[in-house]
């Protein structure tokens, strides 16, 4: 079984996140996806609580992905991957091409590269330029036919703060937006 590991703040989860999960599953890149929201760290210290983000993720993904906040306690991706290796043999870290720019600087990247890395096309970045930094080139699976969506969680949060809900309807799941409004999130 090919298991994807999708780590991010998901603050809030949006249609771009959903599209990635749908695309990877429907095109048989993966059999299962585990979504792990990160805790507050370094430059992201104003995230909504894990419980709230977990609820939004469950609303958005329903049965499509497994939401695992128990691994959110870890500060680094390699720790999450190492923990999941105890249960799964065939892991694939899911990242956008923009993450490749600094991927060689990630903490214990050599541990991450004991698994595969699915790199989704994004922002016209030449992923091969960054993959060539690594001797484990075969660990990278570049998905160049993925049609990216330019969605910013920051933009979504800003529009919600201004109560411009109509502006975000195209970017966020209707049920997630309803949950945000009902709970006065991001205000």
Task: Give the tags.
34% helix; globular; alpha/beta; 8 helices; 187 residues
Plain-language structure description:
The protein has 187 residues and is α/β, with parallel strands linked by helices. The protein has a single domain, classed as 3-Layer(aba) Sandwich (Rossmann fold). Helix content is 34%, strand content 16%. Strands 3-2-1-4-5-6 form a six-stranded parallel β-sheet, sandwiched between helices. β1 (3-8), α1 (15-26) and β2 form a beta-alpha-beta unit. The longest helix has 12 residues, at 15-26. It is globular, with a radius of gyration of 16 Å.
Strand order of the largest sheet: 3-2-1-4-5-6
Label the structural class. alpha/beta
Tell me the distance between the termini.
Answer: 42 Å
Annotated CATH architecture: 3-Layer(aba) Sandwich
Number of helices: 8
User: How does the major sheet shape up?
Assistant: 6 strands, parallel
Chart the SSEs and their pairings:
Elements: E1 3-8, H1 15-26, E2 32-37, H2 50-61, E3 66-67, H3 77-84, E4 91-96, H4 109-112, E5 116-120, H5 127-131, E6 140-143, H6 153-161, H7 165-168, H8 174-182
Parallel strand pairs: 1-2, 1-4, 2-3, 4-5, 5-6
Helix pairs in contact: 2-8
């Amino acid at each position: 079984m090919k298991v994807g590991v999708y780590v991010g703040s998901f603050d809030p989860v949006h249609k771009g996140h959903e599209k990635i999960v749908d695309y990877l599953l429907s095109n048989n890149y993966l059999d299962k996806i585990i979504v792990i929201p990160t805790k507050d760290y370094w430059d992201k210290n104003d995230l909504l609580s894990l419980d709230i983000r977990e609820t939004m993720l469950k609303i958005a993904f329903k049965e499509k992905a497994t939401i695992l906040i128990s691994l959110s306690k870890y500060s680094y991706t390699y720790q999450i991957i190492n923990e999941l290796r105890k249960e799964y043999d065939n892991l694939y870290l899911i990242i956008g091409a923009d993450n490749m720019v600094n991927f060689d600087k990630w903490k214990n990247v050599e541990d991450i590269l004991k698994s595969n890395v699915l790199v989704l096309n994004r922002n016209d970045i030449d992923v091969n330029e960054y993959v060539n930094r690594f001797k484990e080139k075969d660990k990278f699976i570049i998905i160049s036919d993925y049609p990216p969506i330019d969605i910013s969680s920051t933009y979504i949060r800003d529009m919600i703060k201004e109560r411009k809900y109509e502006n975000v309807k195209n970017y966020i799941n209707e049920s997630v937006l309803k949950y945000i409004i009902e709970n006065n999130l991001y205000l």
